[in-house]
Specification:
This protein is 40% helix and 12% strand. By secondary structure, the chain is α/β, with parallel strands linked by helices. It has a single domain, classed as TIM Barrel (Alpha-Beta Barrel). Strands 1-2-3-4-5-6-7-8 form an 8-stranded parallel β-sheet. It is globular.
Length: 278
Amino acid sequence: MIDAHQHFWALHRGDYGWLTSDIGPIYRDFGPDDLRPMLERFGIKGTILVQAAPTVAETRYMLELARENDFIKGVVGWVDFEAIDAAEQIAELAENPELVGLRPMIQDIADTDWMLKPGLSPTYEALVAHDLVFDALTLPQHLKNLLRLADRFPDMRIVVDHGSKPRIATGEKSGWAEDMKAIAEETSAFCKLSGLVTEAGQTWTIDNLRPYIAHLLEVFGPERLIWGSDWPVCTLACSYDDWFAITGELLKDLGEADKHAVMGGNAERVYLSGTARQ
């Protein structure tokens, strides 16, 4: 099994603009020693460590953690996609076999059309050239543009983070459901089964989550869903153990091969095939 979406941070680094004291329980340092007991408890052999700050400095910090901790099988980092030398930065960072993808923080960018800016083309081309995954941190309103982006760069491997964060807390599905279906049918993108409990809020129930996870399973199929914890962000709504149990319950009708695919096989295929950290 692979946890394909987890974070670490050290507050003294100072580049986590979104991480403020009013968030409460996650406003502290989280490192490998905090996560390791949970990985051991559930038999999870590896993780994909994902960026939490829009800086190259944090990407280098994560790459160092990956070198020091064997369970970190890959890093999804960050570069400024609009930088003149973005392609050169990507080429330099990609010399690290631990780097498996990049993620701009699209959900925090006011311009909904940002990802389609013509000036970003060299950056997307560099992702393709270095066989890096584009992790799409999108919201429902970005999905039509993500479909256009995938059409422009058909060779770019795309993983949609957190099911594109449907508005589970308010029970909304319209729009999101149709657009995710289009992404699934018209592109080769994968989708992460992660972060959804946070979108459901602290009053979540399995029944709240069930129709959204069922929809993702229906349109992407178990061969294109990738499980991740989104730890420690998930602890704003539930524990690591809770999320593992929730997904276990909602995937219980899958065959063993399909469960294996969602819980690790797909992550290995998308992020780790061809890297030095298989």
